[in-house]
Amino acid sequence: MQKKLTLTISEEVYEGLRTVIGPRKISQFIEKIVRPYVLKKDLYMAYKEMATDQIREEEAFEWAEGTIGDINDAER
Which of 4, 5, 14, 20 is most exposed, with minimal Cβ within 10 Å? Predict the structure, then answer.
C-alpha cells in the first residue's frame, strides 16, 4: 500500500528534479534514496547482494590492497 506525502522543497530543487528525473518519476526516485535509511532489512539485503557479486568484491579488494601503501607516502 502506498501513502501520499507532502514535502516542501525549494523551487530550484523542484525544477531540477523535474528536469533531471522527470515529472512522473520523482516519487520513485526519492523512495529509492530514502529506503535504505529507514528500512534496515533492505540495507542488509543490499549488502548481502553486493557481497555475492564476485567481480565487485575482487575489484574492491584490489582497490583496498592498492591503497594500503599510500599511508607511507603521507606527510607526518
Answer: 4
26: closest CA among 39, 11, 38, 16?
A: 16
Q: Is 36 exposed, middle or buried (0-12, 13-18, 19+ CB in 10 A)?
A: middle
What pLDDT score was predicted for residue 37? 79
| Cell numbers standing for residue 53 | 557479486
> Is residue 33 packed enough to be buried (19+ CB in 10 Å), middle (13-18) or exposed (0-12)?
exposed
CA dihedral 12, 13, 16, 17 (to 10 degrees): -150
**The three cell numbers locating residue 54:** 564476485
